[in-house]
Structures are given as C-alpha cells and as structure tokens.
C-alpha cells in the first residue's frame, strides 16, 4: 500500500478464549477508536468480544460454525461435531509438543492442523468484519479502500511463530486486495500500555515509570515504560526494559476446574453410572454459564461460601454425597475455586517480582509508580485484590514502595483498542505513542576476520585464504549491529550499507545476506558462531532492476594489477518492530519495489550445529576506527569495561579477555552449512479440550517457512549461502552508531560499503548521544 492516509484501521486481538476487533474509520474524518459489538449468534446483545471457537462436522474440512454460533447445544454437544477451542498457544511448536506429550489423544496431531483452525476461524472473522464495516466507508468500496489490518501478538511467541501467524492471516483473506495491508503491531502489553496512557492520561506524571501487566486467557505480558511529553497534550512512552511474558491466564483456571470436576465425576461414575462419559460432562460443566459467571465474579462482594454447577445430561435426582453431588448438581466451596485461582496468581506474582528485580538492577534510582492491569484475568476482582495486597507497600521491593495498582479502562479491550490508537496517533501527530522500545535480542552478521597470530581467539579457528588479496582470514566471526536491551526507534529504520563486487559479464544480481540472532546478555555476546548464536534468516537483495550505469567500474586502468569488476553500492533498511523485522531495498536513493527486490527465507531450527569452515565465497569486512562511546544508559563508558561487550576498536580496549571483542580488525561476512530440519507430518485434528497449554515438556521445531518481501517476522533459520561483506550500519535517532567496513574479498560476493568516511554517517543525521557498539569507519584497503 502506498504512503497515503488509510481509509480504515482495523485492530485484531486474537485471544485464547475470545477475540476482539477495534477500528477507526478515517474515511469520515474520525480518529475515534470503536469496536465491534454485534456478532453472529448474539444479534440482540452487545458483546465486546467473540469466542475463539470453531466447530467442524466429523470428517469434514469446512467448519459448520464459529464464535457465538458454536455455543448452541447442537454444536457443543453433538457426537458428529468436533469443537475446537484453546488452540491459540498451540501455534507455538514447543507448546504443541508439550500438549502432545501430556495428552496424545486430545492434542492436535500436527502444527498444520492447528494452522487450519487458525485460518478457518480468521477467514470467518474477516468476512464478518467486512460485513460490519464496509457500509460505513465514505467514498470507497471495501475492495478499493485503503485498509490496514493490525494484529497484536503475545510476547511469549518466538519470531518464527509470529511469521507463521502472519502467513495464516494473509491466507485467511486479510490483505487480499491491493489496497489492503496486514501489519504486526504492538505486543499485547505494549498495546495495553498505549491504551491506558491515552484513556487515563491524567493519572500519570512526567517520567512516571509504569509496569503494565496484560493478563489474558492464555498468556501474560509485562512491559516497563516511562511517561514523557505530558505537557504536549500527546503523552508518549519510552520502553525501559525488554518485554517478556509467560503462559499464565484464565484458561488455565478453566482447565484445572475441568480436571477437578472430572475426577469427582469419575468417582461417582464408578459408584453409579452417570450415563454419559465423565470427561464429556466435565468439559460441559466448565463451559457452562454457571461456572463462567462464578469464575468472573470471584472475589466480588456477592461471593457465597458454596456454589453449584449443574451436571448436564444427568438425571436431576442423581445424588452422590461422597463427591458433593445433589439433585444433579455438583457443589463446590469458595476455597475450591480460590485454589484454582491461586495457582495462576502465584505465577503472576513471581513474574511481576522478577520484572521489578530486573528494573532494580538496571535502573537502581527509579521508582515504579504504577502497576497497570489489563486483560481478562487482570479484570478479575480476586486477582486485583491479591495484587493490591501484595504490593501495597512494595512487596519487599525497594523500587516499588509507592506502587499504585491501577486497572486499565476497558481492560478486556485494552489490547485491540491500543494497537489502533497508536496508529491513529502516528497519523495525526506524526509520532507513535511508544517512541522507543528495547530490543529483545542482539542481531548481527557472520563475518571473517583478518587472521592475527597474536590473537588467542583466532587460535584453532577455521581459516580461509581470500583469492582476491591472498590474505588469511578466520571464518565464522560475528559483527553485532544491535545489542539486546538497546532502545530502538519506532520510526527510524536501521540502515545497512552494502557494497558488492561483480565481475564483468556476470549476470547475477541477487545477493545473499545471513542475519544472526542471540538472546544472551550483552556482556556475554559470542565473538563467533556457537550455541549462543543462531542464524535468523537469509536476506536476498535483488538488484536486477537497478540501472547498470550507476555501477562503478574498478581496476579498469592498465596500471591496475587486480581483476576488473563492478562496484555496486546499495542499502538494506531494517525496521525492527515489537515482534517482526521488515526489510527494504534501496539503490541510488530510490526504493526498489518492483518484482519483490527483497526475499527473505526463514527456517526455524533447534540449536545450530558447530560451524563448518567455508573456504570460498566470503567477502571482506574491515574493522572500525574510534568514535566516542556511550553505555546503555547514555553515559560515557570505557569500551574495555567488563560489564559490557568490547565493541569498539583496538585503541578502545580491543582484546579484553573479560568481554567479547566484537570489532576486531577486518571482518568478512561468511556462511555455514544448515543443520537438519525437523518436519511435521500431517494428521487428523482431534479436540484440544483435555490438553493443557501450560504443561512442561520438550520443545519441538517447525518446518521451513519461506516469506517473500514485504513485512517479515524474525525467526531462527539454518543459514543458507551468505556471501556478503558488512560495510556499514547506522540509525538516525536511536543512540546507536553503525560502522563501515571496507571490501577485501573475492569479486563474487558483496561488501557492506562505507558511507562518507569523513562524516561517518552518510545520508543519515548523526545521533545526538551516540552509543557505539561498532563505532566509526576505516578506509577501504
């Protein structure tokens, strides 16, 4: 979609138990965020969300119902129907593998079957969104209107899961018209924070620190933010720590209740037949309005010591005092329900405590002013009461002595409203509510280093001789360009400057680049490929449409001893979002959009195998010169400090053995052979009713996923051929300076080219307070 203003923004919060849809109809000049409240099966009532449920007739691939329509007895209880719910977390292969180990019969048989549930549900959701909103558009049809569909994602999803989700969303119909666009927006905790800051801005003061907890049906996300710009009538937020989450949610309470009821029913059934399988009755009791209403109101003023849940399909005279069944109803004490809640509350408190400890270690002088709760579980009176009691005087945390527990406005809608509100703000004010977010991982490229016999890190490492200059290089090194915890701008892309050498007559114009990811603390970042670094993706830059007259011919004079070649300078701009990465290819100051100029291949895998030496096709990358360095907090720091990686140059403490040397002299981009892939086989989908999404077990991997251009999610992937020379990287506003590295490799593969070596920033404006993990530039050899 072009850069013009959209007609309609639609936000989708796909939940474990329910899904919410918000929107802003900009075509009528309104930036107000509204939400869909009329759903099939509930036309006479307003419902803020629709159940995340889809039902299939037995042995049929097309669903018979979804959402509220699936709640009829003919859909829920029919013997010839498969009722699918709670499948959100199973899109993560690790969660699916755990469920399959715990309940082989009840869990989905393959990741492909889970994806089908997603796709069918989302396709029906898309049709309803079109039905409800198309007639409200002013001056454009649904097919021709510029529409942005924005999806939130949980923090617990790994990048490959996010990318799988994006593909499913598109197959379901979202973004199917040329003027429609699908984007992955904020994480759920970030969206809830944005919503709260807009709807309740009056309670926050300048530089207040917020801990936002979005506790939903399946997952709980935490985000730490600082309030800024309160005096500008457009409050902004800055993220202070990496967002993280856990599988904590209200669906686990449902699951535990179902198990509890089933245990009683099985005992009763052994004494006197119930006439219906106990597992079927337990599931229907859990889904009943009697239990759901009691659960949602638990902790409120109208609690009673005892509550009852009818046992469906059982004679009203059925009695078994041993398991508290009277007149066809099972009786429970309030303590029974409280124990189910407490399992999740204890996990939630542990998660919040961990985050407060993290803030204390990183920002010892900061006080957390507010704990903001959102989501279905966050809306529970009992959960709110427990958290207020725990943190009324800080809960033992020195940085939470004055902590106020607050409830987000419309807590169950906070996520879907927040992702749209943030986009509206960007369109109206030119900036997002969340200006900076902390990078959740470190990113870099595989490179080669000029061999130094005096460098102990080079001893015993694989080496190769560059055929262009005859020099010896160490392979499988890593040049990091983003470090975990760094503030990353929501607005400004990170710019990679590449230089490729092409032999005259060589028709190839597609250049590969391998991107590396690591999740270890920045002080432990590895210097070369190993268990703590994995290949994230392979980026193919296609310059076939670039005008060759802009290529620079080198070694063309008779006195040049080297082989003649073309030098091609281009840029790859990388936008790191909350849960995805987007790539753009730029050449000669213009964005290349035609024929998908950027191709990214993602492949999730287990931990990488030990790297295998690569003896050819690895270009050169030179080390940087000095520039002023700043630490994570923006204060001057000596690069040899043991608490942080040594990323500068030789005169800034290079070679310090206490920290990784991440900018040693000349680097080159390299490659490595891919590890084997585990692939899932097909199979029938069985109901996930008895499969807990919260059990522990062994993780699984997912099969290869290919994505072409556009917006792509971060995933781990086995490396493909990455012959690319890392030459430069910089940003405009985030406090991160990027280096330039010159070429010294063979003519088949590229070098990331330096920008203007005199100003060190090329076309970008230098950041006001640079913090250089890879600082400065050196001249080309």
TrEMBL record:
InterPro entries xrefs: ATPase_NBD (IPR043129), Hsp_70_fam (IPR013126)
Keyword Nucleotide-binding: yes
Location of the region described as Disordered in the Swiss-Prot/TrEMBL record: 609-698, 710-781
GO molecular function: ATP binding; ATP-dependent protein folding chaperone
Skewed-composition ranges (Polar residues): 626-646, 688-698, 710-720, 743-762
Pfam family of the protein (one): HSP70
Claim: Nucleotide-binding is one of the keywords in the record: yes
Protein name from the UniProt record: Uncharacterized protein
